[in-house]
Amino acid sequence: MTAKPRDTSISRGFFIVKASNSKRPFPPQKLTAYESYKHQQSPPPPTKACQREQKLRTRRLGMSFGSYMVTFSIVVYCWAQGLISLGVTVGFLVFASLINATFWWLIHTGRNLKFHDPSMTSAQMIVFLLPLPG
Question: Is the pTM value of this prediction over 0.85?
Fold first, then answer.
Protein backbone atom coordinates (compact mmCIF):
# COMPACT_ATOMS: atom_id res chain seq x y z
CA MET A 1 0.00 0.00 0.00
CA THR A 2 1.53 3.32 -1.04
CA ALA A 3 0.69 6.65 0.51
CA LYS A 4 -0.99 9.15 -1.75
CA PRO A 5 1.05 12.36 -2.07
CA ARG A 6 -0.73 15.29 -0.49
CA ASP A 7 -1.03 18.79 -1.87
CA THR A 8 1.28 21.08 0.08
CA SER A 9 0.26 24.39 -1.49
CA ILE A 10 0.36 27.42 0.72
CA SER A 11 -1.44 30.62 -0.27
CA ARG A 12 0.57 33.77 0.47
CA GLY A 13 -1.45 36.74 -0.73
CA PHE A 14 -1.35 36.72 -4.52
CA PHE A 15 1.17 33.86 -4.74
CA ILE A 16 0.84 30.12 -4.28
CA VAL A 17 3.94 28.45 -2.90
CA LYS A 18 4.23 24.73 -3.54
CA ALA A 19 6.48 22.66 -1.35
CA SER A 20 8.82 20.44 -3.23
CA ASN A 21 10.87 17.41 -2.31
CA SER A 22 13.80 18.60 -4.45
CA LYS A 23 16.54 20.85 -3.10
CA ARG A 24 16.32 23.36 -5.95
CA PRO A 25 14.51 26.68 -5.44
CA PHE A 26 11.23 27.20 -7.20
CA PRO A 27 9.49 30.43 -8.24
CA PRO A 28 6.05 31.18 -6.78
CA GLN A 29 3.16 30.91 -9.20
CA LYS A 30 1.30 34.18 -9.76
CA LEU A 31 -2.48 33.99 -9.30
CA THR A 32 -4.77 35.45 -11.92
CA ALA A 33 -6.98 38.39 -10.97
CA TYR A 34 -10.02 36.10 -10.69
CA GLU A 35 -8.18 33.59 -8.48
CA SER A 36 -6.98 36.32 -6.13
CA TYR A 37 -10.55 37.71 -5.98
CA LYS A 38 -11.90 34.21 -5.33
CA HIS A 39 -9.53 33.83 -2.35
CA GLN A 40 -10.95 37.03 -0.84
CA GLN A 41 -14.58 35.88 -1.03
CA SER A 42 -16.52 35.42 2.18
CA PRO A 43 -16.62 31.98 3.78
CA PRO A 44 -19.42 29.56 2.96
CA PRO A 45 -22.81 30.21 4.57
CA PRO A 46 -23.09 29.20 8.22
CA THR A 47 -24.54 25.87 9.26
CA LYS A 48 -28.01 25.50 10.80
CA ALA A 49 -26.49 25.24 14.29
CA CYS A 50 -24.50 28.42 13.72
CA GLN A 51 -27.63 30.20 12.47
CA ARG A 52 -29.50 29.15 15.62
CA GLU A 53 -26.66 30.49 17.76
CA GLN A 54 -26.68 33.77 15.84
CA LYS A 55 -30.45 34.11 16.33
CA LEU A 56 -29.96 33.50 20.04
CA ARG A 57 -27.23 36.15 20.14
CA THR A 58 -29.56 38.59 18.37
CA ARG A 59 -32.32 37.89 20.91
CA ARG A 60 -29.89 38.43 23.78
CA LEU A 61 -28.76 41.68 22.17
CA GLY A 62 -32.42 42.74 22.10
CA MET A 63 -32.64 42.05 25.83
CA SER A 64 -29.49 44.13 26.29
CA PHE A 65 -31.13 46.98 24.39
CA GLY A 66 -34.15 46.59 26.66
CA SER A 67 -31.93 47.07 29.71
CA TYR A 68 -30.50 50.21 28.09
CA MET A 69 -34.06 51.49 27.66
CA VAL A 70 -34.89 50.81 31.32
CA THR A 71 -31.83 52.84 32.25
CA PHE A 72 -32.87 55.47 29.71
CA SER A 73 -36.24 55.82 31.44
CA ILE A 74 -34.38 56.63 34.67
CA VAL A 75 -32.26 59.18 32.78
CA VAL A 76 -35.45 60.76 31.36
CA TYR A 77 -36.93 60.93 34.87
CA CYS A 78 -33.78 62.67 36.13
CA TRP A 79 -34.02 65.14 33.23
CA ALA A 80 -37.71 65.79 34.01
CA GLN A 81 -36.76 66.53 37.63
CA GLY A 82 -34.09 68.98 36.45
CA LEU A 83 -31.17 66.91 37.76
CA ILE A 84 -29.42 66.56 34.39
CA SER A 85 -29.46 68.48 31.13
CA LEU A 86 -31.24 67.49 27.93
CA GLY A 87 -27.86 67.04 26.23
CA VAL A 88 -26.95 64.23 28.61
CA THR A 89 -30.32 62.59 28.03
CA VAL A 90 -30.00 62.73 24.25
CA GLY A 91 -26.35 61.69 24.48
CA PHE A 92 -27.31 58.59 26.46
CA LEU A 93 -29.93 57.62 23.88
CA VAL A 94 -27.54 58.14 20.95
CA PHE A 95 -24.69 56.32 22.70
CA ALA A 96 -26.90 53.34 23.65
CA SER A 97 -28.33 53.13 20.13
CA LEU A 98 -24.88 53.35 18.54
CA ILE A 99 -23.48 50.62 20.81
CA ASN A 100 -26.36 48.25 20.14
CA ALA A 101 -26.37 49.00 16.40
CA THR A 102 -22.67 48.19 16.23
CA PHE A 103 -23.09 44.87 18.03
CA TRP A 104 -26.14 44.03 15.90
CA TRP A 105 -24.12 44.76 12.74
CA LEU A 106 -21.29 42.50 13.93
CA ILE A 107 -23.74 39.66 14.58
CA HIS A 108 -25.79 40.25 11.42
CA THR A 109 -22.72 40.21 9.14
CA GLY A 110 -21.17 37.23 10.95
CA ARG A 111 -18.01 39.16 11.85
CA ASN A 112 -18.51 38.16 15.49
CA LEU A 113 -17.68 34.56 14.54
CA LYS A 114 -14.05 35.60 14.00
CA PHE A 115 -13.71 36.64 17.64
CA HIS A 116 -12.57 34.36 20.45
CA ASP A 117 -15.92 35.03 22.16
CA PRO A 118 -18.56 35.20 19.39
CA SER A 119 -21.20 36.36 21.91
CA MET A 120 -19.02 39.40 22.66
CA THR A 121 -20.18 39.31 26.29
CA SER A 122 -17.06 40.90 27.75
CA ALA A 123 -16.98 43.59 25.08
CA GLN A 124 -20.62 44.50 25.70
CA MET A 125 -20.08 44.72 29.45
CA ILE A 126 -16.96 46.87 29.07
CA VAL A 127 -18.56 49.22 26.53
CA PHE A 128 -21.57 49.70 28.82
CA LEU A 129 -19.23 50.88 31.56
CA LEU A 130 -17.70 53.62 29.40
CA PRO A 131 -18.60 57.10 30.54
CA LEU A 132 -21.16 59.11 28.61
CA PRO A 133 -19.81 61.78 26.30
CA GLY A 134 -20.96 65.24 27.37
Answer: no
